[in-house]
Amino acid sequence: MKTKLSLVVAALLVAAVPFGAMAMQHEQGGNGHGGHGQAGQEMAGGHGEMAGGGHEEMAMLGSRVEDGVKATAHLNDVRAAMAGAGLKETHHFMILFEADDTGKIIETGTVALKVKGPGGLESGPVALPGMDGHFGADIVLSEKGAHEFTVGAKLPDGKIRQFQFNHPVD
After folding, report:
1. How confident is the model over 93-139, as pLDDT tens digits?
2. Alpha-carbon gap, residue 82 to 65, rounded angstroms
3. What is the distance between the alpha carbons of residues 73 and 82, in angstroms, rounded to a whole number?
4. How far apart are CA 73 and CA 151, in angstroms?
5. Judging by beta carbons within 10 Å of its beta carbon (0-12, 13-18, 19+), is residue 41 exposed, middle or buried?
6. Can you list the domains of the chain with their CATH numbers?
7. Which CA distances in Å does 51 have to 57, 63, 143, 163?
8. Which of 60, 86, 137, 150 is least surrounded, with the fewest CB atoms within 10 Å of its CB?
């Protein structure tokens, strides 16, 4: 049991690395997105090896701007780590919110995710708790094909916003 818990914690820590780097880049005056895309446009999607030598793949789902808040989403394939821990989750979904005008990270709020799979079935809402500057949760994406990710967020200003991202799952 301790081994499984250790593997899950390690997988979550590895998943959080890109957002820590983004936050540091914001503090240094960068846009935190490696120069991909502009506010409100989809970023260059792609897969790459995670820092830290893991075999997990991190996909950039893009950025969207709604009512002054920029949301940037990532999807991390954690199948191997989770399967090794005896867990069914296949991916870690992460989203970062920031004020579009200042780039200040928004770390509090109520955030949930709904996923529509290639067959058209939509999941119930999955709570995305805050995690070191971003919000995220482990989810199961068992169907191959195009998935639609809809994030609803009520942030500290009290406004409710919705952000939508699309991404294929292999």
Report:
1. 999 999 999 999 999 999 999 999 999 999 999 999 999 999 999 99
2. 32
3. 21
4. 10
5. exposed
6. 2-169 (2.60.40.2480)
7. 10, 21, 27, 27
8. 86
